[in-house]
Amino acid sequence: MNILFDELETRLFSPKLWKGFAPPVAGSFQATASGNPVVGLFDDFTGFGRTCAISSNVAYYQSNGITYKSFEDDDGSIQAAVPTTKPAVDTNGIGVISLTAGNSDNDDCVIQAGGNAGSTMCPFNVIYASAKDLCFECRFKYSSIADGDTDFFIGLGGTGMAANNGWLGDDPSGTIATDMANNDFLGFTRLTKTGTSGLLLIYDRVGGTTGTHATGIHTLVADTYVKVGFRWRQQTKTLDVYADGEYVTRVAAATTDGTPWPSLYMNFLAGVKYQATTQDVMYIDWWACAQML
């Protein structure tokens, strides 16, 4: 990660969220602070690049030992962001990728870790009965926060979501329960029909009805980075949500029929979907997820 000493508190992992986990080595987490095994991935995108030519809107990338699959509609693109040469609200440095939506209504641009031609390798879960402690965190920004602009999601998603309409259906109405794809996911979104600057936590499972939690998570500012994440706690069966390193709120899992709590395995997922006249851009500085075994 390209980072200066005075950025340590703002750009890297949030200590309150990651308590008990040892830092990653290269692109993977290997243990807790006490030496117990974990499964985990970390990517700061300093070696991000496409591994083959895009075909039928599908492409594959490698970064920090992680394989990614993407779906890129029309003029949408995923690439290593070019560092800016003049000071801005927040300058892009090396180790940042950009997701740009297409320029036609409902164009998709989505990327998922663990992707291959047949399925998606998904190591992480929050299955109510068995999942041990899990942490996810990312640092990202969005180019514009305005009415009618592009929708986005960042977090964890189930297999096969790097596809056309794989995470969000066409012409979302603002009813999240029916707009989002029928899959397992857990993460953060801003859908244009549900408000412009308020970041939502959303979660779902195959066959469930998408759940949301919006209480004071974060107010987005255009072209300004934010760190957001969550920690699943096995003992309490709850999800603690963090923004810029501080605890924000707690969400209790529900597992009765029709409830949305994810019940399958997931991996990193980010997507943007065009809904306006401007190609908005999501910049991702890094993301990380680790789970105790």
List keywords for this structure.
293 residues, 9-stranded antiparallel sheet, 18 strands, globular, disordered N terminus
Describe this structure in words.
This protein has 293 residues and is mostly beta strands. It has one domain: Jelly Rolls (Sandwich). 4% of the residues lie in helices and 38% in strands. It contains 3 helices and 18 strands. The strands form 2 sheets. Strands 1, 2, 6, 7, 9, 14, 15, 16 and 18 form a 9-stranded antiparallel sheet that branches. Strand 15 and strand 16 form a beta hairpin. It is globular and about 50 Å long. The N terminus is likely disordered.
What would you say about this model in short?
By secondary structure, the chain is mainly β.
Percent of residues in helices comes to under 10%
Quaternary status of these chains?
A: single chain
Q: Helical stretch count? A: 3
Shape call? globular
What's the CATH class, please?
Answer: Mainly Beta
Q: How many separate domains make up the residues?
A: 1
> Roughly how many Å apart are the termini?
27 Å
Mean pLDDT score: 84
Q: Tell me the structural class.
A: mainly beta
Order of helices and strands: HHEEEEEEEEEEHEEEEEEEE
Strand segment count: 18
CATH architecture annotation: Sandwich
Please give the largest β-sheet.
9 strands, antiparallel
Model regions low in confidence, pLDDT < 50 over at least 5 residues: 1-6
Radius of gyration, CA atoms, in whole angstroms: 17 Å
| Named CATH topology | Jelly Rolls
Q: What percentage of amino acids are in beta strands?
A: 35-45%
